[in-house]
Write a structure and sequence with these properties.
The complex is a heterodimer. By secondary structure, chain A is an all-alpha fold. Chain A has helices at about 10-35, 40-70, 85-90, 90-110, 130-135, 140-170, 175-205, 215-240, 250-280, 285-295, 300-320, 320-325, 325-350, 350-355, 360-385, 395-400. Chain A has one domain. The longest helix of chain A has about 35 residues, at about 40-70. Chain A is globular and about 65 Å long. The model of chain A has no long low-confidence stretch (mean pLDDT about 95). Chain B is α+β, with helices and mostly antiparallel strands. Chain B folds into two domains: about 5-50 and about 135-180, 2-Layer Sandwich (Alpha-Beta Plaits); about 55-120, no CATH class. Chain B has helices spanning about 15-25, 45, 55-80, 95-120, 150-160, and strands at about 5-10, 30-35, 125, 140-145, 165-175, 175-180. A four-stranded antiparallel beta sheet of chain B has the order 2-4-1-5, with helices on one face. In chain B, helix 3 packs antiparallel against helix 4. Chain B starts with a strand and ends in a 12-residue tail after the last strand. The mean pLDDT of chain B is about 90. Classes of the chains: A mainly alpha, B alpha+beta.
Chain lengths: ~400, ~190
């Protein structure tokens, strides 16, 4: 049983157009912002690149995570559209290279009049708090963790896909590769726990507000990335269904993916609120400054929009069973959730360096479009390289008769 | 509460049960219920049962819990016994959220368990007729509702043709009742 997917010309052209928009905006932004004299503009240029590249990288890594989690739990239902998270995971390296280059540039070479306006901890001298943190927050650690994490994610993403494709030509009813994937999945969860779920968000995002810290931060970032990652998988699955592919995927699978989108929207809110409430309750000035800027300061509008888009909308729209089984509602909500969590990343990164000088306009949206185009282009390209049905997979039958 | 007449068939395997249920549904006999020793996957579909509305009830219970918690705490902290906690306003929503969340879950969970018990007619101290003592052990029991005009021999033969290991005609209370286990048997048709 095989099923080939050929990238339709329309999808390819749309993704290329989006990439072109991104590149064009990047060039115009580079000329106007980096060439100008406003130091906020220089910061904004790099900060937006950081926000988008990190958001898209973490979102693609979430696809590797769901594969590993499903393999370890021996979940059968995901096998029906396994090729989609695999294709996203196999392209982690693309976003990894981009994000790694941007992050390392910002940490080492970014400079506005002698200051690193994004990562203050690069020059900790004279600042008691940053000097205290400098054993962890320093350039060597940053580069080391960045390179190792991105390399491992990319490797695992490609490894899972390679193993899954090898299963197709394995002897019939052989479970050798299945158990190999099982072991690799356990290893990946360990890697993921030590990177995405702890150190990486501290270094890449939390260190933008270097004086502030929160122990919930990595979980909160993970929840954001994971729910966006599930939404991206949902969009690809619905698109492939609309193209007449993925015949074995039924409403039952879409329902379960919708459950993930719903559940992890609630989980995001849980972690988000847990972080907020403890700081609100103890009311210590060095901690509350983070939220003062965001909730009551110039970011108030985005702050409340993020809450409404990422919690109120999913819980009201996705709660009912019929809406999780409706292709339109789930794809609409997937787009909404991705945008909402992009805004969430916006509000994680912008306030520290830019303060009240934030802008959400052509440059921000253009870069977002560019990355979205890159994701569509690379993933659809990878999808067309192998059969969409993971033939010979031990759980394929279970996936086909799955009832949610 | 009604005394009714049933034709009962017992099966010793779920592999036999599924085709039997299918035959019963196609035969035109009125299916009363199927009793199994463990949850059988797909049986609800084979029986043609409708999606339950239990989750709608759960939503209503949850909302009740939410409003109870917010309302009660607002009343306590704003009008009944206002206390100044660290200079925070009396009506501090973030501090209410954990309790609101817990009460929402509690109301929804307890309410749904009770509703579930009501819908399935199970409750401590409540009785239901047991068609076969081994229906909680290792037998799958199918009960058909019949009446005085039914040809009993024909039903029994039909049930035997579906590979039933045991068949019987029983007159029994069809609903649940409060009372002692030794309610007078045999029943008589009203």
């Amino acid at each position: 049983m095989t099923e080939r997917f050929e990238v339709p010309a329309r999808l390819r052209n749309t993704s290329l157009a989006l990439i072109a928009v991104g590149v064009l905006v990047l060039i115009i932004g580079g000329v106007t912002m980096l060439g100008g004299h406003d130091h906020h503009d220089k910061t904004r240029f790099w900060l937006v690149l950081l926000q988008n590249s990190v958001f898209f990288l973490l979102l693609t890594v979430a696809s590797v995570f769901i594969q590993a989690a499903a393999s370890l739990a021996q979940g059968g239902w995901i096998v029906a559209y396994k090729r989609v998270p695999e294709a996203i995971g196999a392209n982690v390296w693309v976003f990894g290279v981009i994000a790694g280059a941007i992050l390392i540039f910002i940490a080492t070479a970014f400079d506005v009049d002698g200051h690193n306006t994004i990562y203050h901890w690069v020059h900790p001298h004279g600042d008691k708090i940053l000097e205290g943190k400098s054993a962890f927050l320093n350039k060597e650690m940053f580069i080391g963790f960045t390179v190792v994490a991105i390399a491992l994610w990319s490797y695992f993403g490609r490894k899972f896909r390679a193993l899954s494709i090898a299963q197709e030509s394995a002897p019939k009813n052989s479970t050798k590769i299945y158990w190999t994937v099982f072991k690799w999945s356990a290893a990946f969860l360990l890697v993921y726990a030590l990177t995405q779920m702890s150190t990486i968000p501290w270094l890449w995002i939390m260190s933008i507000d270097a004086h502030w810290y929160s122990t919930m931060f990595s979980w909160y970032t993970f929840a954001s990335a994971f729910v966006s990652g599930m939404s991206v998988i949902m969009l690809f699955v619905v698109y492939l269904k609309n193209q007449g592919n993925l015949e074995i995927v039924t409403k039952e699978h879409v329902h379960d993916l919708g459950k993930f989108m719903f559940a992890f929207s609630v989980f995001w809110t849980y972690v988000w609120f847990a972080q907020y409430m403890l700081i609100w309750y103890s009311n210590i000035p060095e901690e509350t400054t983070y939220f003062k800027m965001r909730q009551h300061g110039p970011y108030s509008l985005i702050w409340y929009s993020v809450f409404i888009i990422n919690f109120i909308m999913p819980i009201l729209i996705l709660m009912a069973r019929p809406s999780k089984r409706n292709y339109f509602t789930v794809s609409f909500m997937a787009v909404v959730i991705i945008f909402g969590h992009w805004l969430d990343f916006f509000i994680m990164t912008m306030p520290g360096p830019l303060g009240g000088h934030w802008v959400l306009s052509w440059y921000e949206l253009g870069i977002f479009a560019g990355f979205a185009g890159l994701l569509i282009f690379t993933v659809s390209n990878t999808l067309s390289k192998a059969s969409l049905v993971p033939a010979n997979h031990p759980l394929l039958k279970e996936a086909m008769i799955h009832q949610s | 509460m009604a005394i009714k007449k049933f034709a009962v068939a017992c099966y010793d395997d779920e592999e036999v049960l599924f085709p039997a249920v299918k035959k019963v549904r196609n035969s035109g006999y009125k299916l009363h219920d199927v009793y199994t020793p463990f949850p059988v996957h797909g049986l609800d579909g084979a029986l043609g049962l409708k999606e339950t509305d239990l989750h709608v009830a759960g939503f209503i219970y949850g909302i009740t819990g939410t409003s109870t918690a917010v309302g009660f705490m607002s009343w306590i902290f704003c009008s009944d016994w206002p206390i100044n906690f660290g200079g925070k306003p009396h009506w501090s929503l973030p501090a209410f959220i954990p309790i609101t969340f817990e009460l929402t879950v509690l109301f929804a969970a307890v309410g749904m368990v009770l509703t579930f018990c009501y819908l399935n007619q199970i409750m401590p101290g409540v009785k239901k007729h047991v068609f076969h003592p081994r229906q909680t052990d290792d037998l799958f029991v199918v009960a058909l509702e019949i009446n005085d005009h039914t040809n009993e021999e024909e039903v029994i033969n039909f049930l035997k043709s579906t590979n039933a290991v045991e068949t019987s005609i029983q007159v029994a209370e069809s609903e649940w009742w409060f009372g002692r286990w030794d309610k007078k048997e045999p029943y008589e048709l009203a």
